[in-house]
Amino acid sequence: MSAAREAILSRLRAVARETRAGAAAVEARLADRKPNLVPARARQPRRETIDGFRRMAIEASAVVRRIRHTDDIPDAVMAILRSENRPARLAMAPDAMLEALGWNRAMVEIRSGRAEAHDEVGLSVAFAGIAETGTLMMASGPTSPATLGFLPESHIVVLSADDVRGAYEDGWALLRARGGLPRTVNFITGPSRSADIEQKLQMGAHGPRNLHILLIDPDAAEPPGDR
Amino acid sequence: MVAVTSPAFEANARAALVDAKLQKALGHIKDGFVQRRTAAAARLPEFDALRDLAKEIKDHTLDHLDLYLAHFERRVTESGGVVHWCRDAAEARETVLTICHAAGAKSVTKGKSMVGEEIALNDFLEKNGIEPVETDLGEYIIQLRREPPSHIIAPAIHVNKEQVAEAFRAAHTELPADRPLEEPAALLAEARAMLRRKFLAADIGITGANFLIAETGSTVIVTNEGNGDLTQMLPRVHVVLASIEKVVPTLEDVSTILRLLARSATGQEFSVYTTFSTGPRRPADLDGPEQFHVILLDNGRSAMLGTPFQEMLRCIRCGACLNHCPVYGAVGGHAYGWVYPGPMGAVLTPWLVGLDQAKHLPNASTFCGKCESVCPMRIPLPGLMRRLRERAHLERLDAPVARGALAAWSFVARRPRLYCAVAAIAARTLASLGGRAGCLRRLPLARGWMQGRDMPAPEGRTFMAQWRERAR
Q1: Helix crossing, B251-265 with B35-43: angle to 10°?
Q2: pLDDT tens across B284-303, in order?
Q3: Angle in degrees, 0-180, between the axes of helices B184-201 and B161-171, rounded to the nearest 10
Q4: What does the pLDDT average to over B340-369?
Q5: Which of B95, B216, B270 minimises the CB distance to A133?
Q6: Taking the CB of the first residue and of the last residue of chain A, which one, N or C, has fewer CB atoms within 10 A?
Q7: Chain A within 8 Å of B57 (Cβ-Cβ)?
Q8: Which residues of chain A have pLDDT under 50?
Q9: How is chain B split into domains, by residue range?
Q10: How confident is the model at residue B116 (pLDDT cuts 50, 70, 90)?
Q11: What is the pLDDT of residues B262-283, one digit of tens each?
Q12: Longest dimension (CA), chain A
């Protein structure tokens, strides 16, 4: 279809416009990663940013549980499995931090890797949190399979308060600094839903019915806990 | 399935107005989308400033569309994907089929794609022995009912839950007859279970694209259900259907426009899933597709560039203009007779199927201006519809009666003395017809119009006559 390629591109080129600035302007624009307008709510001091993330994630129907330390993750995960009456089985991202935790493997069956069709609960680690809309930024990769966030009925995500940023643009800057885009970046804001039948909102359409965020937030003023 | 019935708009609209089920369904729009959009926009003080910026971003991109698309293609190729350029619907369909054959595909899952509707892909795949399965709940419902979408973001908005249950019972033959399907929750659970099997069995996943990013060669989809993600991450091959105007320069630019999309569409702060896909799975990845194809479709869009209609190419398909349009709200999407309804469809459809086919659509407007006032991309929709009306007139596509009336009016309007005389006679006649009540119940040549309304009668003397009197 290279004939089609040439035909389309030459047609686009043929449209002469006074406002056209040319190839140099395009290259400059692509190289300039300056954010356009970032809303004030995404430019808050660190503490407000973390609390803002939590507030907006809860508004989007995520359940946010604050913990002090990564060591608290296994207990928090077990509590979620119990509260949802799930079997003690977990599909877990093959992430070094998660694997080094003190899981009581007699109590819970853990499989590291991608999610499979029968998995009820997936556990993964967020690349960042975006405060302006309570959005999780997930970066796919060998230690972070994207299926964990979509196939299971419940998705548990660990997010460090250190990785919470104000705006989407802050997330992109962070990702560029670590070497560019992975196969997929998933912005996740609350659990799956649909209003396609009579405009009535139903949770759990094709993705997870429940989204749990374990927010590692040692400096939180309030005592840790669930919301 | 996407036969153009736009020429029958008038008959379609009449039928829609007396369709009680449809009228009830359309009633949901006002309490839902409209109120929520207003609240979401009000909550973000920078909303209008973002609209200005979004317009600038797209205007700049459209002015340099060849350069940005070439850059996008380069980045896709570098990340291991393939870009296919297609001039029209037939080329796009053939390209999809070639990819399917190369992959030995028997079944295809699809995320919601308006371009997929535009090129009538499902019928074509079926004819070629490949089973396409729509996975967005609304799209799945209308696929089972074999109808086109009636709304660009809520494709089954015209269907009530009883009709959904009926469609599921007809298609899901293993479904026990005594399984209750009265409530939306039960219907959703049934669709989820059925489609889960389809996701896992599919050879190829086809999605649309809300945006393409030139900087990174990424494609972006925005969904609430997560179906688009399961569609693209489980099969071996991911095919993206995108029209050429979807490209934006950078991740920063797409972030700006994303702040407008969900708020304008559903009134959400942000949609649940916004996914950026760049190439096929990486060597050490545990999931994701092995192949990544992007189909870039022109299909008439390049002809809009450099004309006043270039502004239409800023459209991000949020559906706000549909939700706020009194005409769409009265007749629904199917009356418009093709894939894109409402004000955006009234401007776009004539370019994609021909003005002769779609000549009624630019008239399907009261010019109240609401669509332009809510458009996140500031597209002057009423102005563009007016231009299309003008073009239809110049191409002699409008009705003889309308042409005759217009010619008569223009003859009179260009002769001030004659105009005053005719106006004076009309004012006197109408005043006497109005009688003591001062109210007109019927008028010659306007029976249809007067059936639903009374009109106040003129007081008997024209403005010009009164002006002259007072000036004296």
Answers
A1: 140
A2: 999 999 999 999 999 999 99
A3: 40
A4: 96
A5: B270
A6: C
A7: yes
A8: none
A9: 6-302, 411-471
A10: very high
A11: 999 999 999 999 999 999 999 9
A12: 71
The CATH class, in words, for A44-226 is: alpha beta
Map tokens 């399935």 to a residue: B1
CB pairs under 8 A between A and B: 258
Cα B289 from chain centre: 30
Please give the average per-residue pLDDT across B358-386, as a whole number: 97
- What pairs with residue B213 in β-bridges? B218, B248
Confidence at residue A226, expressed as pLDDT on a 0 to 100 scale: 53
pLDDT above 70 coverage of chain B, percent: 100
Do B227 and A188 count as a contact with CB atoms less than 8 A apart?
no
Segment (H or E) for B406: helix B400-413
ipTM, 2 decimals?
Answer: 0.96
Tell me what the mean pLDDT of segment B437-460 comes to: 82
- What lies within 8 Å, CB to CB, of A178 at 6+ separation is none
Q: Which residue in A has a C-alpha nearest to residue B79's C-alpha?
A: A183
Residue-level pLDDT at B100 = 98
**DSSP assignment string, B226-266:** SHHHHHHHSSSEEEEEEEGGGEES-HHHHHHHHHHHHHHHT
Is residue B203 within 8 angstroms of chain A, CB to CB? Answer: no
Q: Name the pLDDT band for B1 (thresholds 50, 70, 90).
A: very low
Helix (H) or strand (E) holding B45: none
Residues B137, A205: C-beta atoms closer than 8 Å:
yes
Cβ–Cβ gap B298/A11 under 8 Å = yes
Q: Which of residues 262-281 of B touch A (CB under 8 A)?
A: 266, 268-281
**Average pLDDT estimate for B380-390:** 97
Closest CA to B184 of A198, A208, A61: A198
Residue of A nearest to B44 (CA): A39
Q: Are B230 and A142 inside 8 Å of each other by CB?
A: no
The answer to whether B285 contacts A17, with C-beta atoms less than 8 Å apart, is: no
Would you say B333 and B158 are in contact if contact means Cβ atoms under 8 Å apart?
Answer: yes
Which residue, B306, B326, B336, B310, is CA-closest to B374? B326
**3-state DSSP helix/strand/coil % of chain A, to nearest 5:** 35, 25, 40
* pLDDT tens column, A177-218: 999 999 999 999 999 999 999 989 999 999 999 999 999 999
Where do the structural domains in chain A lie, given as residue ranges?
44-226
Instruction: Check if B27 contacts A (Cβ < 8 Å).
Output: no
Across the interface, which of A21, A37, A198 has its CB nearest the CB of B50? A37
Amino acid at B61: T
The set of residues, in sequence order, having a beta carbon less than 8 Å from that of B470 and lying 6+ positions away, is none
Is residue A111 less than 8 Å (CB to CB) from chain B? no
- A144 secondary structure, DSSP code: B
Q: Could you please report the per-residue DSSP string of B70-138?
A: HHHHHHHHHTT-EEEEESSHHHHHHHHHHHHHHTT-SEEEE---HHHHHTTHHHHHHHTT-EEEE-SHH
Sign of the alpha-carbon torsion through B90, B93, B99, B105: negative
Q: B112 is written with which tokens?
A: 């919601």
Put simply, whether B230 touches A (Cβ < 8 Å) is: yes
Model confidence at B447: pLDDT above 90: no
Q: Is A196 helix (H, G, I), strand (E, B) or coil?
A: coil
Region of A138 on the Ramachandran plot (φ > 0 left; ψ -120 to 50 alpha; else beta): beta
Of A39, A117, A181, the CB nearest to B216: A181
The CA distance from B429 to the nearest CA of chain A, in Å, is 50
Instruction: Tell me the C-alpha to C-alpha distance, in Å, between residue B45 and each of A40, B259, B414, B443.
Output: 9, 12, 49, 49
